[in-house]
Structure formats: C-alpha cells, structure tokens
C-alpha cells in the first residue's frame, strides 16, 4: 500500500556537528536499507530545499508510522502523509 | 529529468455529460500513451479526492509545459509543479 | 485500518430540490449501511457547519477511496483524509 | 458531549531528557486514566507526526478546558477544538 | 454554556430580491426572539463587513447546532464556532 | 465603542518562573480592575488554548491601544483587533 | 479617529454594463464628496489591482460601518478594516 | 511616488535593554527626520500591535529600499511593500 | 525601474470562444509591442499553469498601473506586484 | 533552462559577526562568478526585504539543486523554485 510522504528537514544550528553528521550517516544507511527492502520505494530531493518527496510501500498505517518515527532525523523533520490509491488510468498496479 | 506534479480536477456541473465523458476518455488514452512512452512515469490517485500525484520524466521545463497543457482535462485542472533532483541517499538514479 | 476523514458538503443552489433530496436520502441510506457493516465506524456533525468528521475502518487506501467516491454526495464534497495509527497511550486497539 | 481535539506536540530540545521522560510517563498515565473513566473516548496517532486526534466526552466547555490544561504535556502542545453534534445519519447516539 | 460564533453572510446575486428580503426579515425576527430568550446573548456587526460576531448561551453542542442551522440565512452563511470557557480573571461567571 | 480582541499568550520557557508568576498576578489584577471600570466588558477563555476573546468598550482607537499595550503580559501576546458596530438585529445598544 | 481600509472590488461579468457604469459613477461621486468633507482622508490605488488602500477619519466604528456600507460598489467589495492609533514617533497628530 | 509599507517589529528578549532602548531612540529620531523631509509621509500605529502602516514618498524602488534598510530597527522588522498609484476618484494628486 | 509581476489568467468558460480568441490575439500583440519598446523586459510562462512571471521596466508606479490595466486580458487576471531594487551583488545595473 | 528562484535570508543573531561577514563576502563572490558565467542570469533585490528574485539558467534540476545548495548562505535561506517555460508571446527565446 502506497503513501506519498513529504519530509522537510530542519537541523538546529545548536546540534553539535559531530552528532549531526552521525545522524545523517545513520539516516542514509536506514534509507538505503529500506529502499533495498522495497519499503521506501522512491526518494527524490526537492530542488533547492532540504526536503524530499518519498513513496512508501508498507503494510498499514501503523507500519508507516513506525517506519517514519524510526528515521534517525525524525525529531528534526516536519512530515506530511498522503494515502495513495490505484489510479484508473495507471497502466501499472500500485 | 523528473518533476512531481499535483493535479486537482474540477469539472464544472455545467459541462454536458457527453462532453465530460469524451474528455475523460481522451484523458485516459493520453495518460496511458505517455505512461507507455515513459514520459509519465508514475500516476497515483490521492485517496478521497479527484486529484493525483504524478511524476513526469521529460527533457525540459518546456517539454513538461507542453505535455501538461496538452492534457484533455487541462482547462479544468489546478496544477502545481515541483522540480526533483537526485537524492544523495537514493539507491537508484532518477 | 483507520482513517480520519473530514467532509465538507456544498450543494449548489442550481441543483433541483428533488434531486438534492434524493441524493441526501441515498447518502443517509449508504452511510447507515456502512455504519452497520462496521466500515464507517464514527460519524459526527461539526457544530454549525454542513460538515462532518468521520472515522473509517477499511482494508486499504484503495478500499477507502472506493468507499468515499461511492458517496452519493461525493461530487459536492471537499474531502481530506488523515491516516491514523495506534497511539501508544490508547487503551483500546484501533 | 463530544469534542474533536487535535493535539500537536513539540517538546523543545532544551528540556532535559529526564524531565521529558517523566512528563511523557505522566501524560500516558493521565491519558489512560481518562480513557478508563470514559472522558477521553478515542485517541489516535496521526501517522508520521507527533500529533493525535482525540474525542473527548465531557460535561461542558469548562470541563473540556480543565481536562486539556491538566495534560502534563499541555505547555508543549498546540491544541484546536471542534465541537461535535449528533449527525442525523449516525446510527449511534453521540 | 457559551460559544463564540463568527458568521459571514454571502447572499448570491441570483436570489430574487423578494426572497432575499423575506429571508432577512425572518432572520431578524428569529435573532431577536433568541436574544430575548437569552440564547443569543450578544450580536455585534463587524465594521465594514456583512458579518457578525455572536455569543450563544446554549445547553449543548447539539443545541448550538440546531439553533444555527435554523437560521433563515444559514444556507448563505460560512460559520465558525469557538467553545468558550470560564476565564480565571473574569469577574463575572459565564 | 466596542472592539473584539483576540489574545494569544506565549510565555517563553526562558522567563524565570518567579517573574512569570508576578506578571500573571499583575495581569489578573489589571484585567479585573478594567472589568470593574467597564472598559474590559467581556473576557472569555478559548477552550483548550492559552488564549481569550475579549470585548473592550473604550473611547477611541488610541484608548484601545494604550489599554492593550499596558497589559503586563503584552510583550508575550499576539493580538488582533476587530472593530464592532451596532448590529441592526441586536435588541441591545452596543 | 483613523482606520486603514483595504477594498478589493470584483464586479461580476453578469452585471449589465450600463448598471456597472452607473454604479462606478455613483461610487466616484460618493468618494469625492466624502474626501471633500474630510471623512475619506486618503484614497490610493494598489498598482496592478482593482483595489485600494484608504484612510477614513470618522467619529466611531458605527460611523465607519455606515460610511462603508453606503458605498455604491459595496455589494461587490471585500473589505478589511484596521483601526489606527497615534504613533509615538509621528510628528503629526492623527 | 508612494508606497504603502507595513512594518511588524519583533525585538528578541535576548537583546540587552540598553541596546534596545538606544535602537528605539535612533529609530524615533530617524523617523521624525524623514517625516520632516517629506519622505515618510504618514506613520500610523496599528491598534494593539507593535506594528505600523506607513506611506513613503520616494524617488524610486531603490530609494525606498535604502530608506527602509537604514531603519535602526530594520533587523528586527518584517516588512511588506505595496506600490501605490493615483486613484481616479482621488481629489488630490499622490 | 523594475517590478516583478505575477499574472494568473482565468478566462471563464462563459466567455464566447470568438471573444476569447480576439482578446488573446490582442494580448499577444500588446505584449510584443511592449517588449519591443523595452517596457515589458521579461516574460516567462510558469510551467504547467496559465500564468506568467514578468519583469516590467517603467517610469513609476502609475506607469506600471496604467500598463497593466491596459492588458486586454486584465479583467480575467489576478495580478501581484513586487517592486525590485538594485541587488548589491548584481553585476548588471537594473 | 530557466527557473525563477525566490530566496529569503534569515541570518540568526547568534552567528558571530565575523563569520556572518565572511559568509556574505563569499556569497557575493559566488553570485558574481555565476552571473559572469551566465548561470545566474538575473538577480534582483526585493524592496524592503532581505530577499531576492533570481533567474537561473542551468542544465537540469540537478544542476539547479547543486548550484543553490552551494550558496554560502544556503543554510540560512528559505528557497522556493518555479520552473519557467517559453512564453508564446515572448519575443526572445528563454
């Protein structure tokens, strides 16, 4: 089941650089693992912003929530979620 | 080159049903042709709305504009466009 | 799986009263059938508005979309959907 | 009498972790006690956000205000309240 | 129990003048009866707008909803409702 | 002359508790004095928020401004003002 | 007593041209009479819009409301009002 | 050439009082000098807010920008600018 | 003197096609004449919308207003204007 | 390929002046180099604000993103991007 997720990241300047770097590395590893597992189906950078549009393929709303709140940068993100359904004109199944 | 496109459709009640049906059929044919050609890479319905999120893969801003304004339902759509860039954590190229 | 759904109804004055009445009766019958089936778990009127907050319990985003677009008054509604997850402090399962 | 309540939580990074943990534990205990008493009728997590939709069943606006301001995390919440009325198509009484 | 109610009136130009005049007269009579009964405690015009701020003193959310939807001009109003509680610094009871 | 005033209070966590308590006590005393004098005609708490709707009865815009900026909590408030006029359906004079 | 007033005019295409022209002429005459009387102290066109910023010098909120609702184009305007006070750095009295 | 300028001032609590006082005194002197020179034609306080509406009479957009950025409190202001044109119903030239 | 102008066009479906076509042709001729004269310095289509960003080089706010209101499609446009100043890092004069 | 870019700069007061000055100098050098190279085609200050409208001429969305994120002041900017297409009435090619 697919969800469009918009993430806006805002890491405060008060976070020590070392900790920020570690969080970003963890975030990258987590994101790549979930992409390889098929859960994080698409990940695009929004041009000019520290933000992304992502498509998640998860089993349920609960699964989505757990996946998102486990993001290492979650405490610094503003997230909005849009549930996606099959479009009647799409040639591929969701 | 990828763009996230949000389309909200609002067909006025004054449009004769026959014309509306014809436009919708044309829209579907056009959408499926562009999907097969790879230009309209993704098409998802937003649950509960006459709206969609789409990802277009086009050569340029001009190509995108021509593609969108050629939509049979374009006169009845409110469209917003977000240019997408490669995300450093994405495991696939855009 | 639960979704919070906000529906705002705006029936145009140009719709003949007979047709509006028929649609409202159909809407009521449909709403009550779905409530009895357990799909439309809660339905509350927003005080002072022709609007409601509803909670739907459906199998998927697709199921939700089909259920909402089948509403007899759907063409006259503005709908927004919020996916709900289990709250860790809730004493009941969703 | 029912109210839809939307709570968005934003605990500042400057709050010591120990104090934050204590407040969260108090919040959970308070929320569960009110649910058992029937005052906090529903509590749902909004997927992807540190936010919830809740339905309160209280005696009055004053009762609601006292209940909400007594939340241990109240100082860190942005709250909005929507009064709910009986929907004519609802099969259950509020 | 008190509620702040904001009403914005927008009577379409297509409504025949005779019917609009009759509705306005009914609205005035209804408003004055409810003020005399104590239910519509305050009624103020917003300077420069066809809008008002009102305070209603009703028994419940349901009572408020029934009172507002019975307004003769209700179909032409956009209404928002804010539940009011006793302010700790107020010298009068609500 | 009446004005609807909406006040939203946001006392920063960095303000020492002693100073905050003193300001709140001063605010209460000031509010009650003005209510007794008839200048602050109504004061209602917005349910669930550290905010109020108030009606002021002052001689002029200048009088209103001086009255509001003299509020002990003024530096921590976001205030919006709506001038009120006599409503033709009101049974009482403003 | 001064008020900043923002007026946005939207004359519907369905209004017969003759009637629109008559209303505009009436509006102009009314505006110029009030300017000569000193009530409509300033009148500026917002560049690129059918809108204006105006400053009114009236006796009260009621006076302002009556003045504005008597505008011949009032039914086609969206008006917002901001009460002005003496600025401590102004070298002229309001 | 005239411009309507809206200035909202927000001096952070962390600015030492002495420095804030000096900036305010400088701001007042600067504002009064520009008023005497005719460049800052009007200056009104918005009732209930640390904000003003001002009308500037300057030679160009560049002149306006230099004038505004030279405000001693400029770093603490949110400014919006609306270019004004001669209104056809105004009895005075801009 | 430069201004950034955003124009959003919304031609109602009720306008006869012949009249709409004539207006569009007039608009094009007018736009091209002003570009050749140097007044309409830039004109860009916003991808996916019946809208444009334009830069005008005019003598004054009045000149801009007259230029914009003379647009054949002006009655069907929503226009917003941003005055531009010389940027200190720009290598070219405005 | 052209993009309209809006940049709003907000340098926190906590950034040491020396570092802010260095960043601003770097920003200026970077901006001027890109202008000379033709990538940053236009750069205009928004009158009264620490903001600009810019037009970039880049090869792709990725090129734009890299160019913008390399801005020395990027961490202190809020950026929005609008893709531009050739306007049919423009006399010059984009």
From TrEMBL, chains A, B, C, D, E, F, G, H, I, J:
- Superkingdom of the source? Bacteria
Pathway assigned to this chain's UniProt record: Aromatic compound metabolism; beta-ketoadipate pathway; 5-oxo-4,5-dihydro-2-furylacetate from catechol: step 3/3
Oligomeric form and interacting partners:
Homodecamer.
Q: What is its EC number?
A: 5.3.3.4
**What's its top-level EC category?**
isomerase
Q: Which UniProt keywords apply?
A: Aromatic hydrocarbons catabolism, Isomerase
The keyword Signal belongs to this UniProt entry's keyword annotation: no
The family annotation for this protein states:
Belongs to the muconolactone Delta-isomerase family.
Q: What name does the UniProt record give this protein?
A: Muconolactone Delta-isomerase
Q: Which GO terms describe its molecular function?
A: muconolactone delta-isomerase activity
Q: List, alphabetically, the InterPro entries matched.
A: Dimeric_a/b-barrel, MLI_dom, Muconolactone_d_Isoase
Q: Which reaction does it catalyse?
A: (S)-muconolactone = (4,5-dihydro-5-oxofuran-2-yl)-acetate
Q: Which residues form the Muconolactone isomerase domain?
A: 1-89
Instruction: Decide whether keyword Isomerase is in the record.
Output: yes
